[in-house]
Amino acid sequence: PNAGGKSVCLRTAGLLQYMIQCGIPVPMKQTSVAGIFQDIFLDMGDEQSIENDLSSYSSHLLNMKFFLQNASSQTLFLIDEMGEGTEPRVGGAIAEAILEKLSQQKAFGIVTTHYSNLKLLEGKVEGIINGAMLFDINKMQPLYHLQMGKPGSSFAFEIAHNLGFPEEVMQMAVEKTGETQLSFDKQYQQIEDEKNQLEQKRAELELADELLTQALKRYQDLYNQLDKSKKEILKKAKEDAAEMIRQSNRLIEKTIQEIKNSAAQKEATHKSRETLKEFQKVLEKESQELVPQPIQLIRDEENSDKEALPKQKPLQAGDWVHIKNLDAAGELFSINDTEAVVIINSVKLNISTDRLEPTTKPTSTKKFRGRLLEDINQKLQDFRLTIDVRGSRADDAIAQVDHYIDEALLLGINEFRILHGKGNGILRSIIREHLSQHQSVAEFSDETIENGGSGLTLVKIK
Fold first, then answer.
1. For the chain, is the Cβ count within 10 Å smaller at the N or the C terminus?
2. Is 136 found in the same domain as 63?
3. What pLDDT, in 10s, does the model give residues 405-433?
4. What is the pLDDT of residues 148-175, one digit of tens each?
5. Residues 341, 82: Cα–Cα separation, whole Å
6. Pairing relation of β-strands 415-419 and 386-388?
7. Residue 123: what are its φ and ψ, rounded to 5°?
8. CATH number of the domain where residue 100 is located
9. pTM score of the predicted model
10. Please, is 354 exposed, middle or buried when counting C-beta atoms within 10 Å of its C-beta (0-12, 13-18, 19+)?
11. By the 8 A CB rule, do 135 and 157 touch?
């Protein structure tokens, strides 16, 4: 744009290049790369001369003639306001031809211009790249920042309006220019603004994707932990059931022995035996009911796409597998004796091999990741930073606290409060004793006096 700093930028580039070739340190990044040129050609300013019968444009043409005759791959040329000083259509055509020729000669250069035809050379002529000095159209002021890969607008009307140019003259100029050109400049600038906004959104989505991946990992770790706890509970329940049956058998035998010792009638003995057998059946039934139900972290959905296949050959990378207890299928990325990596909707999960079974590739892609994000979002909405256990028994309160800690770990929440009340301090002591042994709790303390004091415990998660 006008007054955007393009000429200063051009002169700065030339000065820095000359300093480099003189061995003078210049401000640049450690990764920057600079060339060394045998010739540096300049065409800046106005060199018109009455004595030499040269107009402004004539002096520029003589410089261009010299550039064309002497430029090579070891040449750097710097041209400010290329083509100015003559009729724009003709001047723009000549300038375009000069740049094409210099590009064929493999010369390096920086050119500033307002000619639209030169801005369109990128992609048509090899080696030509657009650049623009950024301009804030809202504040109507230049930003003095060079952006590569895009042409700029002159913003002539906007700058004239900002300088207080007569509105009547401005309106006449608009009518003579035509709405098409003005609309093109505005639309182009809007496109650039939207592009910047999209870049920002893309960065935000990448961050959200990273957070979602972390949430998936925490979710999977929590599931593995619960699965391990489930197996331990199952084992303990079976052991308790077996012990219950053994005790019942001892009781039966003892009862029978007492019946024999008491010399009871045969009918009474038979009736006692039948009663004890019925009691044994009841105990066996109750022992089976001790087996806990599997813990399900993800709600069930239709399984029409899943088809279990018999295990005919060892699993290998590229096979489609179904993950037990997760209601999800994915592509096997890698596998060893104990662990495998499965790709589900572009997310890699580490899964134990004993939880995998072969399946066919789904005919439609399930939105597992979307469902999981929906679950997590719903949990975040329902989660409260204070859990109220007043009036609960000690066992129930501890179960609620453990569930709350699991939810906090899953959602990435680092701190919450337990409202247990003051009273005699019994419930408070039991809960804190439990927290001191919990592997996921970093520390806990009384809430501040103004927020409840010793009636609440502030818990911080690792």
1. C
2. yes
3. 877 776 777 888 998 888 778 888 899 99
4. 877 776 667 767 777 778 888 877 877 7
5. 60
6. parallel
7. 95, -20
8. 3.40.50.300
9. 0.39
10. exposed
11. no
